[in-house]
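Task 17 of the worksheet. Students: predict the tertiary structure of the chain below and write it out as structure tokens. Keep your answer in the requested format; marks are given for formatting as well as content.
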Amino acid sequence: MNDQPFVPLLLGADINVYSMARAFHEAYGVKTVAYGMYPSGPCYGSAIIDYRVCAHNDEPEKVLENVRHVAAQFPDKTILLLGCGDNYLTSIAANLDRYPDNVIAPYVPLEQMEELIHKEKFYAMCGKYGIDHPETFVYRKGMGHDFALPFSGPFVVKPAESATYWDHPFPTQKKAYILQTREEVDQVIDDIYNNGYADSLIIQDFIPGGDENMRVLTCYSGADGRVRLMCLGHVLLEEHAPHAIGNHAVIITEDNEELCRPFRAFLEDIHFVGFSNFDIKYDSRDGKYKAFEINCRQGRSNYYVTGAGYNLAQFLVEDVVEHKPQELVVTKNRHLWWVLPKKVAYDYISPAFHQEMKALDKAGASVDPLWYRGDKALIHKLRIWNQQRRQHQKYAENMEKRKEI
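Model answer:
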């Protein structure tokens, strides 16, 4: 029985949802309500989640319908609404003034959100706050092939607006493309626009270096617009399947307050509220950390923060439910987060990191968010085991192993 004054309501079905549901369960013993579109994923069959399948779950009217249903189901509770994927964010924000009185949705208004998640507009904001980003060319539909790029290859091509991009699937579609030649760039442009995408594309100078040059910064901004939490993660390995490129697989938290400083200034100046997540890459050519994007939500890998001792659910609850004063926390301790079998991690991560990984794991300073003792559902554990077992084949198909030196 939930004796807490709130009920978490999460939209989505992936590891992001499960990680936040675990955070709520660990901190408060509450069971999360989650709506996903399919009877699959790590939430399906979990004992800590009331998982409900709903077609077209990310459409604005369906979001409103489901939120109202849960609010009526728990009229004496505060409903904490969180979107756990880009496709849910604008639908949540579009309804901010239509939710029942017992619903809290910690998000900025729709117009502001659309500016932030649009990569072209986000890059335009970065210069004002001293946030570096890769050299960028903005391609607009109809420009054809008669244009010059201000940098040589390799090139990165990605949509400026992700949600509508995935509304137009095609066989060679990827989250982002890393291309060696201008001819490949032209072909990808044609493929994307010939299949219905209409917004701009981002063409960028490829920053050299592997996954270990990546960083992820997760923040929580209170209802007053002040940043309460900043946790930086050093990414050691990402996923490399076409639709999952850039998804984190292994992270070690690290301390770099200087890197965090301009992001805090940015968030507080625009009066951002709720969770935010930045993808960043270190450029060895000039020694700068360069931002790729902001996500107006906690990221898929959000449990790297909770696992390190900074429970994200607790920061939210203490702010919007309990109204406790919170001073800024910039995390400093080292902690290892991974979501794949250990052998896969060691096979594909540089040996330079193995010693620390083993030391953290031995010291109990490591976590896989999907393996939670508090979740007693056997079917959930079997499904997670089967999913992780397939990681060996997925990485073998998309990456070469890192050899011991």
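Marker's comment: DSSP finds 14 helices and 17 strands in the chain. The chain has a mean pLDDT of 94.
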